[in-house]
Amino acid sequence: MKSGVNLICSAGFRALSNERRVKAIKTVSRLAVEPRNQPVAFYSGLPLPKSTIELEEQARLQREADTKRQEAKRKEQTELGSKSDTEIIALIHSGSLPPHNLEIALGDHQRAVQIRRRWLARHSESFSEGLSQLPHDSFDYESVTGACCENVVGHVSIPVGIAGPLLIDGKEFMVPLATTEGALVASTHRGCKAITKSGGASTIVTSDGMTRAPLVRMPTIKRAAELKSWLEKPDNFYQVASAFNNTSRFGRLSSIQVSINGRNVFMRFKSSTGDAMGMNMVSKGVEKALDLLQEYFPDLDPVSLSGNYCTDKKHSAINWIEGRGKSVVCEAIIKGDIVRSILKTNVADLVELNINKNLVGSAAAGSIGGFNAHASNLVTAVFLATGQDPAQNVESSNCMTLLEPYNDGQDLYASVTMPSIEVGTIGGGTHLKAQGACLQMLGVKGSSPSAPGANSEQLARVVAATVLAGELSLMSALASGHLVKSHLKHNRKATPVVSV
Predict the structure, then answer these.
(1) Catalytic status, residue 181
(2) Does 233 participate in catalysis according to the annotation?
(3) Among this protein's residues, is 226 annotated catalytic?
(4) Which residue of the set 181, 226, 301, 349 is catalytic?
(5) Which of 114, 152, 467, 481 is least crowded, fewest Cβ atoms below 10 Å from its Cβ?
(6) How far is CA 442 from CA 168, 173, 176, 254, 439, in A?
């Protein structure tokens, strides 16, 4: 039984627990006496492949179990659905029916929202009055369940305006902006006009990769240093990358940046994620990578899947310097006559204002990534319109705006550098009807069938170019003293005059 001898002598076998050793020996012994068309493979420490019959039987049993679960679920939904709203609310009060589970329990998402509203209306008079004014009709709640929100009681409408056309890399875009700030769309539209009439904006993507940085603890700083050294060896990185990459079709690990603080080790994994923003994808890969690392470092203590070294939804120097998501640079040369006729100012005043406000002023404030006029305004407006994670506006708004005299001061060179735009065209809120419609307006809805990642990259380019348009217009309004007048015109609702 040559294969069995090779099994017992292998290093992989010696690394197994006693229970797995016994199971492996029994498996090899059985295979040795069964007729086989293929020779027995050497055992490497991984489970031996099952026969086709075993796999088919396992699949059949799984299908039967799934069918039984679905039948039980349908029966439960039918029984609960036959009850009145009052009876269901009584079940919630008794604690036998969790209110957050109404959609699954009933199988009727619209009714679940209505019952939850009736149940919550008993909370207080003021709450009940406010809840009655919150819109809840004409919405596809099934698209929300298990994806976007829990304990749903209604929806909030945000106006969507269009700025454009905005010429980006030779292609025109009409940009949807969801906002409640008057003058923002009008101002951005003016910036789009100035850019497009001057020949358009050009963009480059310098880096693309979502990050997740788990925190692990080693017994001593020496062991922490050994882990760092091990990860920095190419052969070991390939092992970790293989474990990571096997968790996704699109996630591909590109680097691990390691930082030691005491005996704490922060490992910043960076991975491509296709057209998804990719946080869940990267987190899944990191979990598998940690499993592998614990095989080599049994004394490794995983403290947290995220150690804030990523960094997600918080200001940080590492995102500003190293980037996160898409790192984009966008530029445009605005002709002098366009600066005067459309932006209503001049090149010299814009350049001086940008230096003293966006560069010196931000430095005086100790800003990280805030060397701009209002990049966050446009990032948030595009994010809300297209179903991005609004909280990631924090790092996605990292931006440095530069304005320089060009062609001997006759024209204006303008650029924005944004190292951490975190966007996706699939996943999250992108599948919701309104948000999907806005993505469709931009021609980037869903995943790119020919080049995975192309749609999300294009969306990041649009974000950067829209920020540039917004920066040009606001800075021009400040330079010419028109900001307050513009806001009074667009951001104040006239008080109606009542005749007596």
Answers:
(1) yes
(2) no
(3) no
(4) 181
(5) 481
(6) 12, 6, 8, 29, 5
